[in-house]
Amino acid sequence: MLIRHRPDLTENDVTDRGLYLRRREFIAGAAGLGLAGLGLAGSGGAAAAAPLAFTKGFSTPEKPTPKDDITSYNNFYEFGVDKSDPAENAGRLKTRPWTVRVDGACEAPRTFDIDELIKGQKLEERIYRLRCVEGWSMVIPWVGFPLKDLIAAVKPTSKAKFVAFETLMRPSEMTGQKWDVLQWPYREGLRIDEATHPLALIAVGLYGETLPNQNGAPLRLVVPWKYGFKSIKSITRISLVDRQPPTAWNRSAPREYGFYSNVNPAVDHPRWSQASERRIGEFRRRETLAFNGYGEWVADLYRGMDLKKFY
Ligand code: MTE
Fold first, then answer.
1. Is 71 in the pocket of ligand 1 (CB under 6 A)?
2. Ligand 1, atom nearest to 130 Cα
3. Is position 232 annotated in a ligand binding site?
4. From CA 256, how far away is CA 121, in angstroms rounded?
5. 0.85 exceeded by the pTM?
6. Which member of 26, 194, 217, 251 has the lowest number of beta carbons within 10 Å of its beta carbon?
């Protein structure tokens, strides 16, 4: 298939036609019900899962992983290192009030209140595969908006070559931050062309409701073609910068976790193979796909790069 340059890519280009038509039907139906373009229907917070109004964005037709699995088998080291720790401990995190500072190489740096930010967006559902670097995967129906829209709002300058993300630092609620498992706060980064790719999403919900704390409330990044650790949770700061920013896992084990961390079955982790994965809920392992199956839309971003070197 012809790989187009990013600026030419529209949502319809990356949508299977059947899904695109279904999405249009959904929008038409939603408009009839007066639902289109509504923001967050509720205040959210630690305990309440409020329904969200959204349209259907480009998605995989695969069956989503059950919600119970998505919300009980997590990596969120700020709440502990076991998979069950986040569901148990993340309820302590107060997600209101919450602000996100977006600054750096831009003309209009701004601090967004989370509810104002969400109200100003047209939320859509994106059913994406998530592949963890540990060798398991899920299919998750996120609700959110493209990261590129948030970046455009602050008017980046030509010095914005990378985007740096930071999670909240609050050891009184994020008790895992009292231990030195990583250098806190958790940090991540993307190149500006990755960050403004239409697939890169800011998620504020899943399964049609506000994001549970263990999944990164009130807002997290989702970069479906990269290993899950790039998808940083509970973000408080996004900075446009001119150099590749430091990232938490790369700092902790640079030979194991690179800055790019594109899903790549041909490049093994130093301690295990990346050729296959266990889809949560399935018995047999399945083959891992290059770029987690999103290659036809994102491979062009890495043309000419040695992906063994830039792992
Ligand atoms: N973000 C923060 N702040 N802290 C973390 O420990 N873990 C990452 C990523 N984002 C992590 C994080 C890892 S390793 C993965 S696989 C995904 O979140 C898991 O997301 P999920 O729990 O919603 O499936």
1. no
2. 24
3. yes
4. 37
5. yes
6. 251
